[in-house]
TrEMBL record:
EC nos: 6.3.2.3
Residues in Glutathione synthase substrate-binding domain copies: 162-260
Alphabetical list of PANTHER family matching this protein: GLUTATHIONE SYNTHETASE (PTHR11130)
Family from the record: Belongs to the eukaryotic GSH synthase family.
The protein's enzyme class: ligase
Full protein name: Glutathione synthetase
Coiled coil (UniProt feature): none
Highest taxon above the source species: Eukaryota
Catalytic reaction(s) noted: gamma-L-glutamyl-L-cysteine + glycine + ATP = glutathione + ADP + phosphate + H(+); gamma-L-glutamyl-(2S)-2-aminobutanoate + glycine + ATP = ophthalmate + ADP + phosphate + H(+)
Names of required cofactors: Mg(2+)
Pathway terms, separated by semicolons: Sulfur metabolism; glutathione biosynthesis; glutathione from L-cysteine and L-glutamate: step 2/2
Oligomer and partners: Homodimer.
Length: 432
């Protein structure tokens, strides 16, 4: 009565193989980009300047970032685990194109559960007498790839007795997803503890060298599966976050990398010249990244912002209005977009949002299986995520990989929301 199965599609969904390969091919570039942004104080400061005036959550993260830099970074090993999400935009001639929805730089989840979905869909196909199709499903094991990154960071931290700390929520609905990664670490003889911000507030401490201790146990790596939404924080949790950020422990991600994943940063990246400045001398990487961008627009208080606000009010179905939030269910579409934008168009509040072109994928039929829900066929669209893992020591990248993929599918009547939001379900790509 307390455990449900994770929702999944009955059948794997068709994914164009060229776009699937394109998504894998650009992942290392995205890893480099996120890492470069996280180290670029001026870029983050300049990009988030208007947002932090009106968005308190981003402002608080930003203040921690500034405080840690002023004190001097104690952390020298950096671990990034991200997931770049895409949809297949259907052009006027019907050709699908890979378009990035966003990149998640904190608590990018479902790498664990999705390591098991290939087996589920392979089994279903076999039951249906389609064993040839079953054998064509690609192996996929992000749990291992994620754990290899954490293990590398732990090793470079350089203390055999130190542990990895998963920072988790009080009510943890997605625990099995995390256990998949955790088990991979135990298999490598790395100890894992699971703690909440409250535990850190009560029992966390730093020594003179800013080593982090929990209950007297040294922590090498802090892996956040929490801390990406305003409701994750009260005053004590903010203090705990600051303590972790000041420490020498490897944070996955550090606060700068979390800020690199904001929607505002994503929008600034699409400005001509920005990628070139962030990744100098990497023209090919820049071209691969840019090819995945949809139209993104600033709502800053200037002529450009006025113009796009007016365009979106006149034609809301072309756009998605996004605040600086993660976790699904925060974006605005259609009539609601129009109403909200109309209300805030002349107020600085609008700068806490960005506008993005709405991606329109070609729907396909599938069954969405969810505990306690009736079984019926739905018209569905899918979102492909690629997991990126990287480890940097000082200035040297010692690991940069694409660690696997995630396919999530939802009924077309839901504009927004992922698996955790109760909208999308786990799927497996069937390459065509
Ligand atoms: P969050 O950080 O809340 O996950 P996302 O930017 O990923 O925010 O948006 C949540 C969901 O909204 C996505 O999973 C996708 O289904 C839908 N969505 C977001 N951006 C677009 C877009 N540009 N076009 C179509 N759907 C979108
Ligand atoms: Mg998302």
């Amino acid at each position: 009565q307390v455990v449900n199965y994770a929702p999944f599609t009955l059948l794997p969904s068709a994914v164009p193989s060229a776009l699937f390969e394109q998504a894998y091919a650009v992942q290392q570039d995205f890893n480099l980009l996120v890492d470069a942004i996280s180290q670029n104080k001026e870029f983050l400061e300049h990009t988030l300047a208007s947002t932090i005036k009106v968005d308190d959550f981003t402002a608080r993260l930003f203040r921690i970032h500034m405080q840690v830099l002023e004190e001097g970074l104690a952390q020298s090993v950096f671990l990034g685990i991200n997931r770049s999400d895409y949809m297949f935009d259907c052009g006027v001639d019907g050709t699908p194109a890979l378009k990035q929805i966003e990149i998640n730089t904190i608590a990018a989840s479902f790498g664990g559960l999705t390591s098991r979905t290939v087996a589920v869909h392979g089994w279903v196909l076999k039951v249906l007498g389609k064993s040839k199709e079953a054998s064509r499903l690609l192996p996929n094991n992000p749990s291992k790839g994620l754990a290899l990154g954490i293990a590398k960071a732990w090793e470079l931290y350089g203390s055999q007795s130190a542990v990895v700390m998963f920072l988790v929520e009080e009510v943890q609905r997605n625990i099995f997803d995390q256990r998949c990664v955790e088990n991979e670490l135990w298999n490598r003889n790395i100890r894992v503890i699971r703690k909440q911000f409250r535990d850190v507030f009560e029992k966390g401490s730093l020594d003179d060298a800013k080593r982090l201790y929990m209950d007297g146990q040294e922590v090498a790596v802090v892996y956040y599966r929490e801390g990406y939404m305003p409701k994750n924080y009260n005053q004590q949790n903010w203090e705990a976050r600051l303590l972790l950020e000041r420490s020498r422990a490897v944070k996955c991600p550090d606060v700068a990398t979390q800020l690199a994943g904001t929607k505002k940063v994503q929008q600034e990246l699409s400005r001509p010249g920005t990628l070139e400045r962030l990744l100098p001398g990497r023209a090919e990487a820049v071209a691969r990244i840019r090819a995945t961008f949809a139209g993104l627009y600033s709502l800053d208080m200037d002529e450009e912002g006025d113009k796009i606000a007016a365009t979106a009010i006149a034609d809301p179905d072309r756009f998605v209005l996004k605040p600086q939030r993660e976790g699904g269910g925060n974006n605005l579409y259609g009539e609601e977009l129009r109403q909200v934008l109309e209300k805030i168009r002349d107020s600085p509040e609008r700068t806490s949002y960005i506008l993005m072109d709405k991606i329109k994928p070609q729907p396909a039929m599938n069954y969405l299986l969810r505990a306690h829900s009736p079984l019926r066929v739905s018209e569905c669209i899918s979102e492909l995520g690629i997991f990126g893992v990287y480890v940097r020591q000082g200035t040297e990248m010692v690991m940069n990989t694409a660690a696997g993929h995630l396919l999530r599918t939802k009924a077309i009547e839901h504009a927004d929301g992922g698996v955790a939001a109760g909208v999308a379900v786990l799927d497996t790509p069937y390459l065509v």
